[in-house]
Amino acid sequence: MLYVDIPTRSELDELIAARSDASVTIVLATTAHTQDTDKARIQLGNLVKQAVEQLETVGVAKRIVAAVEEQIHDLQDDDDFWKFQANSLAIFVTPDSLRSFRLPTTLNDMVQVSDRFHLKPLLRAATFGQHAFVLALEENDVRLIEVSADLPAAEVKVPDMPKSAASYVGTANVNSRSYAQRKGGGEGQKVLLRAYARRIDAVLRPVLAGRSEPLILAATEPMNGIFRSVCSFGGLADQSIATSPATMTPGEVAEAARPILDQLHADLLADVRATFAARENEGRATKQIADAARAATFGAVETLLIDMDEALPGTVDATTGAVTFDDNASAVSYGIVDEIAARVLTSGGTVYAVRRDDIPGQGSLAAILRYSV
Predict the structure, then answer these.
(1) Can you give the three-state secondary structure of 300-347, one letter per residue?
(2) CA distances from 101 to 47, 209, 262, 350, 353 (A)
(3) Would you say 102 and 182 are in contact if contact means Cβ atoms under 8 Å apart?
(4) Residue 128 pLDDT > 90, yes or no?
(5) Vertex 72 angle, CA 71 and 73, to 5°
(6) Which residue in 356, 366, 365 sits closest to 108, CA to CA?
(7) Per-residue pLDDT tens for 257-282?
(8) pLDDT: is 207 or 169 the higher one?
(9) 372 vs 285: CA distance, rounded Å
């Protein structure tokens, strides 16, 4: 299995704010197969040499370079650490600290040295995480299962969750054809099942309140349609796992949910591209790096799409947002698009790190603006 560390927003904020004379970001491909990790460990050593060369070129003190090098070599020699990996590893190191994140996305090897970290490798995992809740719903049972990229799927204990439709409505069988009160037969069954669904929705509210993760429904008819008719959670996915979850383990539920999560991500990108097209006609969207840098500096970027694989060296003026491009990466420059993304996040905007083909115009970035600048 993949062992993954998805950065939280607070962790991203800390990395965005971090400054050091020697901030080194290293990204390398890894593997979940323990017996095959030696290649990644050797490549890490090669990437460290590149980082050290850049630091020495700009005259960083030897003791600072040695402190950075020592921390990375300690990680390189940690056998236990390398037993549990994913598809990529992102390392953020200064003379005083080292943070690492195991990522599900396959990324290109990279070394970035500057006074700040290169965060683009984390943004893909942070904005398109495999985190969701699945409501496995039947007449005779109901479970809430949390699906995560970095932990095994597990059932969430929900206070006061009814055990079944029959037990909640106080009858031996909701499928009875006999008449009771004002309803009977199939119509009466729907009344009882709707009451059961409303109760489930009510007990889920405090659990899901404030959550941004989608809720995926695993149910067959008529429970699928009945729950959808009463659900108050705005993040309920349109697509369901349309098989009975009765015999499914949490892990099997998670596997069935992942294609739906992938489709949700695809639909989200389609919506962003459509919004970009509409705003571009209004003068409130841009594909130009210089324009996006200026807008981000003044807090005018609402949504930003960036190429997850590219790194353009240079600098962005802290006051004006003016861009200066460099021909080669060095310790006196940083990734321009990465810096634009950091400013967008700091001003409350949203950043999606995607493949270049997903960006309107297939350039380095596409920015949707709050207002024209």
Answers:
(1) CEEEEEEECCCCCEEEECCCCCCEEECCCCCCCCEEHHHHHHHHHHHC
(2) 17, 28, 22, 21, 16
(3) no
(4) no
(5) 90
(6) 356
(7) 999 999 998 999 999 999 999 999 99
(8) 207
(9) 8
pLDDT tens-digit profile of 9-21? 889 999 999 999 8
pLDDT at position 52 over 90: yes
Residue 271's contacts (CB-CB under 8 Å, 6 or more residues apart) are none
pLDDT tens, position by position, 217-263: 999 999 999 999 999 999 999 999 999 999 999 999 999 999 999 99
Closest CA to 270 of 134, 283, 262: 262
pLDDT in tens, 211-229: 778 999 999 999 999 999 9
Rg over CA atoms, the chain: 25
- Maximum Cα–Cα distance across the chain: 87
Determine contact, residues 360/366, Cβ cutoff 8 Å.
Answer: yes
CB 304 within 8 A of CB 341: yes
| Mean pLDDT score, 151-158 | 88
Say how many Å lie between the first and final Cα of the chain, rounded. 47
Q: How many angstroms separate the CA atoms of 222 and 103, rounded? A: 39
Show the 3-state SS of the chain: CCCCCCCCHHHHHHHHHCCCCCEEEEEEECCCCHHHCHHHHHHHHHHHHHHHHHHHHCCCCHHHHHHHHHHHHHHHCCHHHHCCCCCEEEEEECCCCEEEEEECCCCCCEEEEECCCCCHHHHHHHHCCCCEEEEEECCCCEEEEEECCCCCCEEECCCCCCCCHHHHHCCCCCCCCCEECCEEHHHHHHHHHHHHHHHHHHHHHHHHCCCCCCEEEECCCCHHHHHHHHCCCCCECCCCECCCCCCCCHHHHHHHHHHHHHHHHHHHHHHHHHHHHHHHHCCCEECCHHHHHHHHHCCCEEEEEEECCCCCEEEECCCCCCEEECCCCCCCCEEHHHHHHHHHHHCCCEEEEECHHHCHHHCCEEEEECCCC
Gap between the Cα atoms of 229 and 250, Å rounded:
25
Closest CA to 129 of 296, 246, 11, 301: 11
Structure tokens at 78: 């940690």
